[in-house]
Design a protein that fits this description.
Layout: H1 2-8, E1 15-19, E2 22-29, E3 34-38, H2 49-55, E4 60-64, H3 82-95, E5 101-106, H4 108-119, E6 124-130, H5 142-147, H6 153-158, H7 162-172, H8 182-192, H9 197-205, E7 223-228, H10 236-239, E8 244-248, H11 255-258, H12 260-279
Parallel strand pairs: 3-4, 3-5, 5-6, 6-7, 7-8
Antiparallel strand pairs: 1-2, 2-4
């Protein structure tokens, strides 16, 4: 049982803050300008463990478990639209008394990050989109498609097999990645098995998301796009004015876990250049 308690209960550096009736779990480490890291769907703040170790020398790194996931868990109102997530993230940072921050997000976290950039541009010092989502033509992973099957949906609210979670993780990484091990699968399985998380994930997957991609050209925040060459349906570098893009040749969807050094170096260099520009 000791491994179970590692992930499904708070760790020594866990913190919690109340936002809109939600008890948001987060971790905070380091010193410097605020940098907020947002994980993707069916993930948790541990997605950025290695990247945080590399970035916390230069930044005040703040990472929440997003609603529906990790130790934050489900929303009572079951509103899993991305603009609702963006409002929660902005409220979370307000509750922490952090008025200005850079936002970096992977997958769903990137989608939320660019929605915050649309809704609260005055708060952001920089925006980093790591294999972000938000375009309607984005391919939906098999696991998410399964939750939309009305016959399977009630079953998945009650049980999410460990083997299915492992399969989904293996599909999410690049062909040369060795990161999917028992510890990673245990973490994902234990967190998904927390009370309410399976149902929240099914609710999230069945939420009709508004398409705001036509508004991307309105983003004025300095933006870095980090993308794996294999990821489709993304046009952030094309549609966000002045956006820079770096492409990883063989990374998968989970770049911050697969290539933490590459991601951390890119973020640090980019945000350093943003700060230099602001200072001048």
């Amino acid at each position: 049982m000791s491994t179970w308690s590692t992930w499904s209960e708070p760790q020594p550096d866990s913190r919690f803050v109340e936002v809109d009736g939600l008890r948001i779990h987060y971790k905070r480490a380091g010193h410097g300008p605020a940098l907020v890291l947002l994980h993707g769907s069916a993930s948790s703040l541990q997605h950025f463990d290695r990247a945080t170790d590399l970035l916390s020398d230069s930044f005040d790194v703040i990472r929440p478990d997003l609603p529906a996931f990790g130790l934050t868990g489900p929303r009572k109102d079951r509103d899993y639209r991305v603009p609702a997530y963006a409002a929660t993230v902005a409220g979370f940072l307000e509750a922490l008394g952090v008025p200005r921050y850079a936002l970096a997000g992977n997958s769903l976290g990137g989608n939320i990050a660019w929605n915050v950039a649309l809704d609260h541009p005055e708060r952001l010092t920089g925006l980093v989109l790591v294999n972000a989502t938000g375009y309607p033509e984005k391919t939906v992973p098999a696991g998410m498609r399964l939750t939309r099957n009305p016959l399977v949906r009630p079953l998945l609210r009650r049980v999410m097999p460990r083997g299915a979670i492992e399969g989904s993780l293996r599909q999410s990484v690049g062909p040369y990645s060795q990161i999917v091990d028992d510890a990673m699968v245990d973490r994902a399985y234990q967190l998904m098995s927390r009370p309410g998380n399976r149902s929240a994930f099914v609710d999230f997957c069945n939420t009709d998301q508004p398409d705001r991609s036509a508004q991307l050209p309105r983003i004025t925040v300095p933006t870095l796009v980090l993308r794996s060459a294999s990821i489709d349906g993304q046009h952030f570098a094309r549609d966000i004015p002045g956006a820079q893009e770096l492409v990883h040749p063989h990374g998968g969807h989970l770049l911050p876990e697969e290539e933490p050094q590459w991601v951390a170096d890119a973020i640090a260099k980019f945000l350093g250049s943003c700060a230099d520009t602001t200072a001048n």
